[in-house]
Structure formats: C-alpha cells, structure tokens
Write a structure and sequence with these properties.
- The longest helix is centred in the last third of the chain and has 29 residues, at 268-296.
- The chain has helices at 5-10, 14-25, 31-38, 58-71, 90-101, 121-135, 150-157, 172-178, 198-210, 234-252, 268-296, 301-310, 316-328; strands spanning 46-52, 76-81, 108-113, 140-146, 161-166, 187-190, 223-225.
- It is globular.
- The chain is 50% helix and 12% strand.
- Helix 2 (14-25) runs antiparallel to helix 6.
- It binds guanosine-5'-diphosphate and magnesium ion (MG).
- The site of guanosine-5'-diphosphate (GDP) has 14 residues, from helix 4.
Length: 332
C-alpha cells in the first residue's frame, strides 16, 4: 500500500516535504487538502522568525544557529523568504551553499520560498510551509525574511519568537525603526560586531527601548552581539532564545501576570490567538476576493469597475455594495 503525501511528510520524508511545500507555493488545488490532513498533527514546533535589512547576515546567522541548536538535540527546519531576488538566483545560490553545509545532516531541512507576487501570498505560503515542517516533526523552525514590507513583518510578528538583526554603522537601526520592526523584536541581534560602531548600535537600540515602559518581570528585549561569520556570540543568542522560551512558558502557565496593561509579548496563548486570527482573516479575505474576481464578476469586469471609479462614474462604496449584494443574492 502506498502512503499518501501527508503520511510521508509525517514520516519525515525529505522529498515529500519538498514536494508538499512546492504544492503550497504553487497554490495547487491539492494544497488545501494537504494542509487539512497535516493540521491535526501540528502545534509542536517552536517558530523562530528572523528578520532585518538585506545583507545584515541573517542567513549566515541562521546557519550558525542551526548548528548550535542541533547540538542541543533540536531537529531543524529553515524557510528562507527572499522576495528581493526570487528569480535572480541570489537566494538560490545562498541556499545551495547552506544545503552543502548541512548536507550530512538528515535532521536539517532548508528551503527557499519564492514569492509569486500575490498580495499576502508569501505570508500564506510561508505559514503553510511551516505547518509542513511542524507535521514532519521539526522541533524548531526558523523563518528568515527581509524586514521590509508588511508581508515579511507579518510572518515574523506571528512567530513564537521574533529576532531582529541589525548591523553597526549603516543607519540600519533607524531604517528598521521606520519599517516598524523594532516593536516586534523579542531579541535584538547586532551582527557584524567585528566592525566599528557595534557598541554605538547597541546604545541606539538601548535608548529606543528606554522610551518604552516595561513592567516589573516583563520581558525586555535583550541585545546580543554576534559575528555570524565566525560564530562569535551565537551560543549566547541560543541561550537567550531558550531563556525567552522558559520565560514565556512561565507567563503562559499563569504565573502572576507581570503586565499591568496592554500586550504581553511573552504570553504565548495570546500570540497563538493573534496568529490564528491573522491567518483566518487573511485566508477569508483572499478567498472572498478570488470568488469576486473569478466567479461573481465576468472576465475583465473588476478592472472595468476600477476604471469607472477612476472616471468618477461610480463611487467606490456603491461599487463595493453592488458586488456584495451580488455575492449575497441566492443562486438561482
Ligand atoms: N564582517 C562580517 N561579515 C558578515 C557577518 N555576518 C555575515 N557577514 C557577511 O555579510 C554578507 C551577507 O550575509 P547574509 O547572511 O547573506 O545576509 P542576509 O541578506 O541578511 O541573509 C555575506 O557576505 C556574509 O559573509 C559578520 O558577522 N561579520
Ligand atoms: Mg539571507
């Protein structure tokens, strides 16, 4: 009897995992069924999001972290999202190099995700790919994204732990602030500490953190200095990740809630809720728009409607209401 793809994924079959992620990436019709079959077997992975500006050394760092976590007995999946160069080969080349580094290790699965250019498509595909690795039994899944654009930030924000990687002396810290990724960091990394200005970068992050109120006992994002190329600081980073996990388990287990008001980033139950709410809303929005564009409206009708709005022939509210009433009209 031959096994289904979902069964092979669950058995940790590397080729099945690759195939499953390709189906998801291509938005193949069978992908939804696959996720449905895998879903009951997920929820065991720790999702680590790693983000930061291009060239900050995220891939190098993830690679080093992979080695460190393997030594602690974790099984590791890595999903690299690089929308900046999906087809130029840049990401793929880096991927190949990394594959080589861990080629001897069956417990490490590395995969690049290419964006298909759909709005939100990348975040959707990435979450589903993470489910595949979760079902395959990876205890740790790291997702690397470039910290630009809402999609990438969403991916990392909804992870169990978010790591923001910055580098000294390029003004990246300021850039990152603008992109809104400062708020999502559970841990800051200042990488390339072999360069000048590492301490200045730390100070500038510190002064930013000083502007925010942290309750007693609340997790205050630590700043870890690393040099990914040599591995310096990576053990400390791994230790800090484990501290965060221990801390959030404590909070989730109902220890005295340290936060007087607002969002407790270490409350994993809330994060999980946020992640699932985000996914459901996102999927519904996506599916509804597909319904509108491909079933409710004829070919080109959506674009024609947009043109009519531009020409002031119809206002956007009326256009949306018309579509909605068509959607709600009972089928003859
Ligand atoms: N000097 C120095 N270079 C680094 C360090 N970490 C990474 N790099 C280099 O920075 C470049 C970009 O690294 P990469 O990991 O691809 O960055 P990513 O775009 O953030 O994934 C590569 O040439 C790395 O060798 C570091 O700690 N010090
Ligand atoms: Mg990279």
């Amino acid at each position: 009897m031959s096994l289904t793809l979902a069964e092979r994924v669950r058995a940790g079959d590397v080729r099945a995992m690759a195939r499953a992620i390709s189906l998801i990436e291509d938005e193949a019709a069978s992908a939804a069924g696959l996720v449905r079959d895998l879903f009951p077997h997920t929820g065991h992975t720790c999702l680590v999001g790693v983000t930061g500006p291009p060239g900050a050394g995220k891939s190098t760092l993830v690679d080093r972290l992979t080695a460190a976590t393997r030594e602690s007995g974790e099984t590791v999946g890595v999903i690299c999202v690089d929308p900046t160069s999906p087809f130029t080969g840049g990401a793929i080349l880096g991927d190949r190099l990394r594959m080589q580094a861990h080629a001897h290790d069956q417990q490490v699965f590395i995969r690049s995700m290419a964006t298909r250019g759909h709005m939100g498509g990348l975040a959707r595909a990435t979450s589903d790919a993470a489910l595949v690795l979760d079902a395959a039994g990876k205890s740790l899944v790291m997702i690397e994204t470039v910290g630009v654009g809402q999609d990438e930030v969403d991916i990392v924000r909804t992870a169990d732990i978010s790591i923001v990687v910055l580098v000294p002396g390029t003004g990246d810290d300021v850039q990152a602030l603008k992109a809104g990724i400062m708020e999502i960091a559970d841990i800051f990394v200042v990488n390339k500490c072999d360069r000048d200005g590492a301490d200045r970068a730390v100070t500038s992050i510190e002064s930013n953190l000083a502007l925010q109120a942290y309750g007693a006992g609340e997790w205050r994002p630590p700043i870890v200095k690393t040099e990914a190329t040599t591995g310096r600081g990576v053990a400390e980073l791994w230790a800090t990740i484990q501290q965060f996990r221990a801390h959030s388990e404590q909070v989730s287990a109902g220890e005295p809630q340290p936060v007087a008001s607002g969002f407790s980033r270490t409350n994993q139950a809330r994060r999980l809720k946020a992640r699932n709410e985000f996914r459901l809303r996102d999927l519904l929005t996506h599916r509804f728009m597909e319904l509108v564009e491909h079933e409710l409206l004829g070919a080109g009708e959506f674009d024609a409607l947009v043109a009519r709005i531009a020409a002031r022939e119809v206002d956007p509210h009326t256009a949306a209401s018309d579509i909605l009433s068509r959607a709600l009209r009972p089928k003859p």
